[in-house]
Amino acid sequence: MTETANITFDELRIVDDNRKGTPDEVRFEEGESYDLPLRSADRWVKRGAAHFTTPEDAAKALGASSDVALNLQDQDRRDPSGTRRQPEAVVGKGADSNGNGSSDLSKKTVAELKALAANFGVDLTGLTTKAEIVAAIERDVQIKSAIAAGNFDDLTVAELQKVAADQDIDLTGKTEKTEIIEAMKSGYKPDFAG
């Protein structure tokens, strides 16, 4: 089975203009989410036509189309207001051409990182350096991946408490990590991580 990533389209896209209006038309609606093979998902995001629905999807699809040189036409890089738009950033860690682990995030500008953080709901309060912002985004991906997998042990007490507050899980009288994890497992709603 082909592994997929979920992306949400930022604009209407029709795959092949020659099929437009025919029964063979393949259309991706603006604001709708689709599970696509990793390579296709990565390419749509790089074109700026879509964004990854979750950080986990972004991490999964990271570099899946790195062997393809995208020919981005101006119409593929414009938003409805007519301003130029570059492809969106990808979250997570990948490998460079030498196979060394390196963060693609470190290649982004601070403005791009802040926009990506805002898109995924990462709190940057008090963070002033690019390295701090990159670390916060990468940790957010780790936290959300751990939550999605039900690995609450991977989170700190403070992170568990934040998730519990977001989920309206009562932690009254629970101060030990094991107690908090037990409460999390009994009251956690899985759709939160996505």
Percent of residues in helical segments? 25-40%
Strand content: 5-15%
Order of helices and strands: EEEEHEHEEHHHH
Gap from first CA to last CA = 22 Å
Low-confidence stretches: 69-102
Total DSSP E strands: 7
The general outline is: globular
Determine Rg (CA atoms, Å): 19 Å
What's this entry about, in short?
The chain is an alpha+beta fold and 194 residues long. The chain has a domain at 1-88. The protein has six helices and seven strands; from the N terminus they run ββββαβαββαααα.
Would you kindly provide a written description of the structure presented here, covering whatever features stand out?
The protein has a domain at 1-88. 35% of the residues lie in helices and 12% in strands. The chain has helices at 38-46, 55-61, 110-120, 130-149, 157-166, 177-187; strands at 4-9, 13-14, 27-28, 33-37, 50-52, 93-95, 101-103. The strands form 3 sheets. A 3-stranded antiparallel β-sheet has the order 4-1-5. It has a two-stranded antiparallel ribbon with strand order 2-3. α3 (110-120) runs parallel beside α4 and α5 runs parallel beside α6. The protein is globular and about 65 Å long. Mean pLDDT is 74; it is low at 69-102.
